[in-house]
Specification:
heterodimer; A: 219 residues; alpha+beta; 2 domains; four-stranded antiparallel sheet; 15% strand; B: 193 residues; Gyrase A, domain 2; 56% helix; elongated
Chain lengths: 219, 193
């Protein structure tokens, strides 16, 4: 009777012990699974974002691989990272020459000038056609982006016309990588701007031709 | 009445039986729960193995993608520069009144093949609020113009438009009719002049 009781007790202890050990193993395995699952979900999110980035980059590369250098040069010229007053003066002179609208002077509009925007009040004279030509070309043809917030056109007052022109400069945020797709609409805009700017980008100099006669004796 | 005394001979046996029943039940339930836990353990092991294999596949793909991006760093930088500058361009262009397309709308609305009508003045700001003064030498042209201005074809260019003044003036010794309008143009999709 005593031995049966002992056997039963041992069996019970073994069963309970096994149960507890199994619980521990299960807890440990669950932890392993939870860690793996957490890592997998984090990795999945990262891979999805990377895949999206790569797809966008591939598409963008396919769309603008040849033109992008030209577009970037053009955009850097239109909106430089830092203000360049020489290009402002040059732009005004160029638009004036092209349109026939004679610019007689300009003053800084301090109240409208900010870090990104340089506002000038340009005074000039010219006939209505010259003024119209100026108003047609001012946005890009000077090689800088120019905007005019309010235009007052008159066929009568052609002697002392005042125009408020804005020039812009802004650096890009290098820490942010764009995850936007370049669209055909963007390219259309760039082509239009390019046509308006009329800037001829020179092809890189490939060096002098090597097809010439040489003398072995310099004397 | 005498109370009969009895001995409970089964008392010990009952105690023993309860212990053994508890022991039996403990073994029985431990075995069942243990079996369930074991199945859960197997399931968890399979899931962990599958997840680990998913992690290793994803890690490999991540490696390839990162490698592609690092190989194309220049292209990525160029694209980023282009997109940010293009956005700047679009934003800054919103400051522009874009006079010419709207002037062209008005110019095209004037009676063709006649010099009797001219746009005397035109004001427009970046919100596309506008004022314009049109003069006519010829009464019939002015009359036809007023009819045209009321048409759907012309009014679709405006959010609002009203004729504020109508006057009869001497224009360079000639009788002239002046129409002064105020209103707001519809935004044209084209931002470049």
């Amino acid at each position: 009777m005593q031995s049966i009781r002992l056997k039963r007790s041992i069996s019970t202890i073994i069963a309970l012990g096994g149960f507890v050990i199994l619980c521990f193993i299960l807890f440990f395995t669950y932890n392993l699974f939870a860690q793996a699952s957490d890592a997998a979900s984090k990795l999945d999110t990262e891979v999805v974002s990377l895949r999206q980035k790569v797809t966008i980059l591939k598409n963008n590369k396919n769309l603008v691989s040849e033109q992008i250098d030209g577009y970037n040069q053009l955009l850097a010229q239109l909106i430089p990272d830092t203000e360049d007053f020489f290009t402002i003066t040059y732009a005004i002179e160029k638009i004036s020459q092209q349109s026939g609208f004679i610019v007689t002077g300009y003053t800084i509009n301090i109240s409208e000038t900010s870090r990104e925007k340089y506002s000038l009040i340009v005074e000039g004279q010219g006939n209505p056609n010259a003024l119209l030509a100026f108003l047609k070309d001012y946005q890009f043809s000077g090689g800088r982006l120019v905007t005019n917030e309010k235009v007052e056109f008159s066929t009568e007052d052609t002697e002392k016309i005042k125009l408020s022109l804005n020039f812009y400069s802004k650096p890009i945020n290098k820490t942010v990588t764009s995850t936007t797709q370049i669209t055909p609409i963007d390219l259309q805009l760039m082509e239009k701007v390019k046509a308006k700017t009329m800037v001829v980008f020179k092809a890189p100099d490939t060096g002098a031709s090597e097809d010439y006669k040489t003398k072995t004796n310099p004397f | 009445m005498t109370q009969q005394k009895r001995l409970n001979l089964f008392n010990k046996t009952t105690n023993r039986n309860v212990t053994s029943i508890i022991a039996d039940k403990t073994i029985f339930y431990s075995t069942i729960v243990g079996a369930i836990l074991f199945v859960a353990f197997i399931v968890l092991i399979v899931l962990t193995i599958t997840t680990n294999s998913r992690v290793s596949t994803a890690t490999q793909e991540q490696k390839q993608l990162v490698e592609y991006l690092s190989q194309n760093k220049t292209a990525e930088a160029q694209t980023t520069y282009f997109l940010q500058k293009k956005d700047q361009l679009k934003t800054f262009l919103k400051d522009d009144a874009a006079f010419l397309p709207y002037y062209t709308i008005l110019k095209n609305s004037l009676p063709p093949a006649t010099s009797s009508a001219t746009i005397q003045t035109m004001k427009i700001d970046k919100s596309k609020k506008t004022e314009f003064l049109i003069t006519f030498i010829n009464y019939d042209d002015m009359y036809r113009y007023i009819h045209y201005v009321e048409s759907e074809d012309f009014l679709r260019n405006f959010e609002s438009l009203k004729l504020t003044t109508f006057s009869l003036n001497q224009l360079g010794g000639v009788k002239g009719y002046q129409l002064h309008f105020e209103g707001k143009f519809m935004n044209l999709p084209e931002v470049v002049n």
